[in-house]
User: Fold this.
Amino acid sequence: MRASLLQIAVNEGESVKARRERVSSLVRDEAGRADLVVLPELWTTGAFAYELFAAEAEPLEGPTYEAMAEAAREAGVWLHAGSIPERDPEGPLYNTALVFTPEGEPAAAYRKIHRFGFDKGEAVLMSAGRELVTVRLPETVVGVSTCYDLRFPELYRGLVDRGAQTLVVAAGWPERRRAHWSLLARARAVENQAYVLACGSAGEHAGVVQAGHSVVVDPWGEVVGEAGAGEEVLRVDFDPGRVDVTRDRFPALKDRVLGLAAPRRG
Assistant:
C-alpha cells in the first residue's frame, strides 16, 4: 500500500480560495501514485491563525468538502483531507477532519477531541468532539486523530480497541516542539503496534513556524520515511499486514491490565 503525505505550506500571502485550488491540484497529482493521501490540520487557515477560524469557518459540506470530494474522485484515492474550521448549524466551531473514498463519497468526519491552547486559541474558540472515529479501507482500518491528540495515549488505545491498525495524525505542529512530534509519533506506533502516518504542515501560521517533518512509523517503531522542513510530498510504501505479524510475535497488547483500583489511603 502506498501513502502520500502532502506537507502543505500555509503562508499569509496565499488566500484560502487559492490554497484550496492548489491543494486540490496536488491531490489530483497523486492519481496512480498513492492509495491513501493525507493532508495537514487546518491547512485552509493555518492552525495558529486564530482570527481566521470564525471568518473562514465552513459548514461540514462547504467549499473545502466539495473540492476535496472531487479531488479524491478524480485521483481515485482514499483521502484524509486534513481538517477545517467547521461551523455547526447550531453555532459552535469545531476542528473537523474529513475522509473521502476513492469515489469521492464521505467516509468519515472527526471533530478534534483535544483542543490546544490551555486558556486561549483553539481551546476557547472551538468546541471539543466526543467521538472516536475509525475508517475501514480494503487493506487496513484507519484511526483518525488530529495534532494535540498525539499527546494523549488513551485516545489511541480507544482507536485500537475499535480495530485501528493504521493511526493517521493531521497536524499543524510548531517547530519549537519538533522533538516531541517525532518522539510521540514513534511512541504511539510502538505502544499500539500500529503504523503511524503523521502529516504536518510547513510555512508559518500567524508567525508560528511549523515543524514539517511529516513521518511514517512502522509497528515496531522504525521510521519508514520522513519529510524535511519545507513543503513536499512524502510518498511511502507500507505493508498493513505487518501489524498483525507484530502483534502476534510480540503480543504485548494482550497483557494490558484495565480497571485497576485506586490506591487505598491509610
